[in-house]
Structure formats: structure tokens, C-alpha cells
Amino acid sequence: MELKSRHLLGLEGMSKDEIELILETAVSFKEVLNRPVKKVPTLQGFTICNLFFEASTRTRFSFELAQKRLSADTISFSSAGSSTSKGETLKDTARNIEAMKVDMVVVRHASAGSAQFLSERLQAHVINAGDGAHEHPTQGLLDLLTLKEKLGSLEGVRVILVGDITHSRVARSNVLGLQALGADVGVCGPPTFIPPHFDRLNVKIYHDIDEAIQNADALNILRIQLERQTLGLFPTVREYHEKFGVTRARLERASKPLIIMHPGPINRGVEVDSDVADSEHSVILDQVLNGVAIRMAVMYLLSLKN
Ligand code: CP
Questions:
Q1: What is the layout of strands, in order, in the sheet containing 259-261?
Q2: Considering the chain, what is the average pLDDT of its residues?
């Protein structure tokens, strides 16, 4: 069994078997992360470039750490301080880096389709580390691994994504990955946050957070993108918290404890209260650790493809 593509652009079109291969490989690499010497020679001699045109903490550091754990040679690019600020295009930036004999490119960019654009123009393997509101496949995979660690099979498990679904690449990759593994997926938020086509994706739509909580085994709570507030998608942060904020009081009314997830960065007191984010039911930091193992697995499996 191997991955079909030599790039990871999204979870769209990825089979259950491929996703399970990545998750199983990540489980083996997670064992490496728990050793006193957390390093294997798997990608020795392999050169990887991290191209981050947008801010990132978790994704960027976990890719960089995963590369070190696999003994790859790495270079990292931030648009600030690079020739992008002098007008250089994405294509020219990537081709110049590739000319230095880079084998794999990890790219985060504000434009949907940027990872695919590079994959069509470079010889190097391309991994999408988040492209606009399109997909964030490694986040989707690490969320799947975290849920599987807690629940075993995801068949029939009810997972509800809460927040701004329309602008969320995390939501899109989660829906695709969860459905591939047989989970029962819902989304919850104000109507302005739910794309109209979602009712055709076999996704249950909730506009009432209390109803969503009653019907979920796990909540994946998304960051409210405060930078979008000027678009008038929600009246005020305080009102969003009152209507959709995940609070301990709301969770205590549920018939059983829910698994609490958040991809980060968290707006504490907006989409989720601190005592929920830091509670015994929160797996937020497990998600972060699993991010390293998933990225090791993805880079290793892609490196096997010509
Ligand atoms: N989850 C996630 O993508 O976080 P960063 O933006 O910090 O990478």
C-alpha cells in the first residue's frame, strides 16, 4: 500500500485506505517521539523547504521539528524579509528555491489553490500547509489521529465543527477526512458562517450550540477570525460568545462528557472559555503533539514516491 499522489494538496479524493496508511505510519513515528533520542535517519540526504507566506505557529514548528526528527536538511522561508517584499512572484520564489535542488516544498499561502499551482510547476513534492479557505490536510489528519486515539474506530462517531465554517480550511479538511472514516459530521454556527452547499454534503447543520452539544461525541471548535468582523458576518464578539461560545455550563447540561478539540490559535473567552480549553476533556495539546507525528508520516510516505 502506498499513497496515490506524490503531493499532499488536500484530503479531497483521498481514500479511506490512504488516510489509514498515514495514520498508522504516524503511530509508529509517535513512538520515536517518546524515545530519549527522538531522531531517525529516514530522510537523511533529503532537502525540504518550508515556504510560509502566512503566519503560523503550530504548523510551521511541527513541520520543522518533524523534519529534524527525520534527519532531513531544511531551509525555511518567511515572506517578511524575503524578495517577495520586492515583488517576486510565488512561482519565481519557488522555482529559485527548487533550483538549489530542493526535494520537497511545504507551502502555506493566503490563496486557495497555491499548493496545486506549485505542484504543477515544480519537480519537488508539494505539501499544502494551509491554502486560503481551501484545505489544511495535515491538520485534518492530526485531528483524525487524535480522535482515533480517544475513541478507536470513528465509524458512527458524531463530530461537530463549531464556528466560521465558510472561511475555514480546517473545517473542509475535517469534513472530508471524517466522512472518509465513517464519522457522522455536523457543523454549527450562525447562518452567515455556514456555506449554502453544506446541506448537500451529508453534513447536519446546527444553528443552536446547545442542540449541537446534545448531539455530539466531540466538538472541534474553530477560531473566530476576528479580522473578518468588519465583513458584518456576526454582530459583536460578545454576542457570538453568548450564542455560540462553548462554556462549562453548556457542557454540563450534556448527557455525557464531550471531547473538546481546537486547531489553534484559540481566542479564549470568545469561541471557547479557558476552563473548557484547559479541562480534562480537552485534547488540544494532544492535537499539537500528533501534528509532529502526522507530518513525519506524510513527508516519509511522499518521499517514497518518484
Ligand atoms: N492549526 C494551525 O494551523 O495553527 P497555525 O496557524 O499556528 O499553524
A1: 204-206, 184-188, 158-162, 218-221, 259-261
A2: 94
